[in-house]
């Protein structure tokens, strides 16, 4: 393979493509660069050229770098692919690493990053070449071990070849028949023949072997005259009472080539015996696991494998002769220093060659991959714990512990912005900081240029990470520092994460990525902690807000909560006023009155941002109102947040600096607006209730006045009429007087029922335990029951106002006795006893109440709702108020009453919702 490296550079910026390509060619003479403006063109180049490495931007028109990577991986899963980009994010980097990117390098304006790119290209390509060479060597070795066929020759004591197998033809150029009957010396170069014949004669004479018959090596003679290096294993046997010798001949030229491949491969090629002993190790053993091959020969491999991994390795590699894919095992192998290194082994078939017998296993070092996997798994655990922290100090301490564990950065710390915003103060420091710093480092805002504090503030104000590999040689710092490697990452607007080490070039790109991901999770945790703290304080303020008794008081409390608890400065609460035709300012914070002109009413046609948010019912946020057509665009107001308070109005929150209101502010302002809306709703309900209460009181006054009129002004004339009737009866006897007396009785009944209706509607507030059966019996004795029969099945204690309960029962019993059911089928001239004189009235108990039923004519189903209307009656003598009074008493208790058909076909009145004492 040539030393030249062809690189494909894909970037949509033509100037940047040219600069990077030129630099790569100048940096490394062996690098040749092919460029493409996008993923599609890049794929065309890959189809036409033998590219050994792809360098791609992330943000490109059409397919981005990750989509391009996916298509490249479909074509060639192992082709080195480096994402070289100025865009993207930690999430993109994580996704790229998961997708199998070879490396992720950020663009910058200095040459160091381009030098790093060139180095990584060469490293990646050389590693790929070495892996391919190793794979080829192993493949060739397997082919020889599995498919090579040895030449087998049988020779008699005279040195004549008696048998040759088919393998002699590819090895020596003779067909088997051509060699059978010929002397073995046919295959021996002339210079070796005499030595061979002498050795055979000595053996036949005294049985003494002059060489090791298991491995005799020399150059054999091919039919065309060239010599072939071979190794022969001899054996002796008897056939037909004749001594014979058999030789198994192997062509050593192929073996020598494979040995060269194996000995120069980056992976370790080993041969293991069936009892797990090392029979062979390639020279790369020393560079991979620290042992010379001679140190391990004869040793049991399992003894060097971590005890926790031995069972898995035995299971995976214990059946090397099985069918299917080659078995693979990952395990920890003990190194010369007593530690362990992660290895991956792939097993193949059995071999027997060159005095080595066993199973071939190819092994590579996967420690870096395992460490990366461990780091990512540990990072997930640390970030999960950050999600459960409850205080700022707890989150900061946890983040410092995490960065020390993940990238061994004990010289690190979290520095948070002070309350006055003038310094970055240490919140948590690594274990090494006190040993290397005389006092805890803090960084003031007004620090001299090129000082540690100035460097920290520059990073805090920036958007990305500041990475310095060798601080002592950096032109960004004049002040001495114990740190050499440095990563500075802003934690949003909370502060700065300082990750450092006293050694230069300590942090890899992966380390920087881990620090950035950890910082982002810390920022989210601090945001959450701050939000929860402010929400807790806000809840305390909203309790005061909802107790406010007027719209103006609620608005004032909302402004107070926004300024004192949420620490907003410019706050205005506007409420919709129908009379004014818009949003009227009701409460304003002091800074708002100083910064903004006198507030006016915002109307639908005024073009205000406030009205637009109110009308849409949506929160509106503006990082800088000077980019809008806001009415306050000429004022010092810059940041603006408008939150609708439902149908009541808006809360406006502003700051004099742009971009000061974030997602947390939106969240908290939304909570405040919801609390204010709840308070306004409660105030509106209270106001409506007060109005209704006042109206009810006025109605009760009128009703009481009416009751007084009925009681006094009607009863008095009625009593006079009764007296005159009695006097008239003494003077004369007339049937008309009896009719007048009945009219007087009816008028008396009407007055009594009207007074009951007027005075029985108030809710029951003094309910007490009452024996239902006792009250039923008492009421039956009170009512004129004529010849009716009572069947009382009522039992139990209920909660009721006994006097009003009597009123209800008496009316129901009277209704059943006098009407025999208030049947709408009765005619106006029917007698009073519509149900007959022998009606049976039953009072029984329900699961949540009781009932009164009779066996009279019943109630027409279409009229059952009407019987409770005031004035409804089917009797000429009835007032029509009896059942209305029953319903009124039930309502006063919170009960329900309904008319249904009784079991005997009469009327049944069920009262439910009745409670019993606990």
Fraction of helical residues: 40-55%
Number of separate helices: 25
Q: Could you give me the name of the CATH homologous superfamily of the largest domain?
A: GAF domain
Regions with pLDDT < 50 over 5+ consecutive residues? Answer: 138-148, 821-836
- The CATH topology of the largest domain is Beta-Lactamase
The counted number of beta strands is: 33
Overall tally of structural domains: 6
Mean pLDDT: 82
The helix/strand class is: alpha+beta
Radius of gyration: 52 Å
Indicate the proportion of strand residues. Answer: 15-25%
Question: Largest beta sheet: what is the strand line-up?
Answer: 18-17-16-21-20-19
Q: Regarding CATH, which class of the largest domain?
A: Alpha Beta
Cα-to-Cα separation, first versus last residue: 97 Å
Largest sheet: 6 strands, antiparallel
Biased composition (Basic and acidic residues): 826-837
Protein name: histidine kinase
Keywords: Kinase, Phosphoprotein, Transferase, Two-component regulatory system
Domain Response regulatory: 6-122
